[in-house]
Design brief:
With 378 residues, the protein is an alpha/beta fold. It folds into 3 domains: 97 residues, Translation factors (Elongation Factor Tu (Ef-tu), domain 3); 102 residues, NADPH-cytochrome p450 Reductase, Chain A, domain 3 (Up-down Bundle); 144 residues, Nucleotide-binding domain of ferredoxin-NADP reductase (FNR) module (Rossmann fold, 3-Layer(aba) Sandwich), CATH 3.40.50. It is built from 15 helices and 17 strands. A hairpin with a 2-residue loop joins strand 10 and strand 11. Helix 14 packs across helix 15. It is globular, with a radius of gyration of 24 Å.
């Protein structure tokens, strides 16, 4: 049943309170914290397909809010208005407002109050690089610590904040394999910035809970789906947490008896500590459901190896699969990985298809137009 056909379906503004059933660390011994979560969809009415995402509506950390209120000089008991709602400030900060990551607009609004020459200078267009450096690792609380403000009222303070955005996570399960459940693969953000320990709002919200209720809703993604024809081969490139939708894809292909061949490229830092869902992939490979499995570990040898390098190593076979009508999927980091994978695809077209650089680019674009090259990058 689609969201459009059911007005009672959970949404961003009216999420479903899902029970968090499983919270499992998958990267023991790694310097990255990646967790597998399983949430109940019992009686939710939510029905998803592989490739869809789950929206999670987090709550801010109590300690973070307490420290922020202390820095601003407010108790949290003040009454404020958000839209048409009147509420206590602390409740608004916990559930309705984003209170951590800085933006240029937020600094500009803050400086309308603080009138700092330094901040005014950083906000000039010619100093945009310096502003980016300043913002990294800082949160709103740091502005109030560096530029203390007295007498700021609660309503004006909330004017510095934007609404709490939900976070979207690629679903890592198939309903066919896990009825009434949805699984997620989440990299938990923790780091030190400006001399303080910081953490991602939603990833740490999930990481620090189990058995509790998590507000969530379905976010369909019609542009990242398995082929309608189950005999079509698929090539999946998903390093790190980009593996999530491909776990869903393979579970679905197995549950439905799809005859198409399956090929996975996965990579991370070290095979010993960062091989997400290792037992599952090895089992799928051994029983023939996963026809090819290529792994890239960036730190297990002197020279770093990434998924695009593995693609180039298998360029002949990869080209044949694509010539035979395979669909090509990429999920994960948009800033570097997706671009490197795209370039590897162009290189393969030049070398195996004997194309010019221009023709190879046109061929890759044709894959997009034919909806045989699909991306879910962030």
């Amino acid at each position: 049943m689609s969201i459009a056909s059911n007005p009672n379906m959970p949404t961003k503004d009216n999420p479903y309170a899902s029970e968090l059933l499983v919270n499992r660390l998958m990267t023991e011994g790694s310097d990255k914290e990646t967790r597998h979560f399983e949430l109940s969809l019992k009686d939710s009415g939510l029905d998803y397909l592989p490739g869809d995402s789950l929206g999670v509506v987090p709550t801010n950390c109590e300690q973070v809010i307490a420290e922020l209120l202390n820095a601003v000089g407010l108790t949290g008991e003040e009454s404020i208005t958000l839209g048409e709602d009147t509420m206590i400030l602390e409740d608004a900060l916990m559930h309705r407002l984003a209170c951590t990551v800085l933006s240029k607009i937020q600094i500009k609004k803050f400086n309308e109050i603080a009138q700092s020459d330094r901040l005014a200078d950083l906000l000039k267009i010619e100093n945009k690089d310096d502003l980016v450096d300043y913002m990294w690792g800082r949160e709103l609380i740091d502005l109030f610590i560096e530029y203390p403000q007295s007498g700021l009222n609660a309503q004006d303070f909330t004017g510095l904040l934007r609404p709490m955005p939900p976070r979207l996570y690629s679903i890592a399960s198939s309903l066919s394999a896990h009825p009434e459940e949805v699984h997620l693969t989440v990299a938990v953000v923790r780091y030190e910035g400006n001399g303080k320990e910081r953490k991602g709002v939603c990833s740490s919200y999930l990481a620090e809970r189990v058995g509790e209720r998590v507000p969530c809703y379905l976010h369909p993604n019609k542009n990242f789906k398995l082929p309608d024809d189950p005999s079509i081969p698929i090539i999946m490139v998903g390093p790190g947490t980009g593996i999530a939708p491909f776990r869903a894809f393979i579970e679905e292909r197995r549950a439905t008896g799809a005859s198409g061949k399956n090929w996975l490229f996965f990579g991370d830092r070290s095979q010993k500590t960062d091989y997400l869902y290792e037992n599952e992939w090895e089992s799928y490979h051994n029983d023939g459901l996963l026809n090819d499995l290529d792994l890239a570990w960036s730190r297990d040898q002197e020279k770093k190896v990434y998924v695009q390098h593995k693609m180039l190593e298998k360029k002949g076979q990869l080209w044949r699969w694509l010539q035979d009508g395979a669909m090509f999927y990429v999920c994960g980091d948009a800033s570097r990985m997706a671009k490197d994978v795209d370039q590897a695809l162009r290189t393969i077209a030049q070398e195996e298809g004997v194309m010019s650089e221009e023709d190879a680019g046109a061929w890759v674009k044709s894959l997009f137009k034919e909806r045989r090259y699909l991306k879910d990058v962030y």
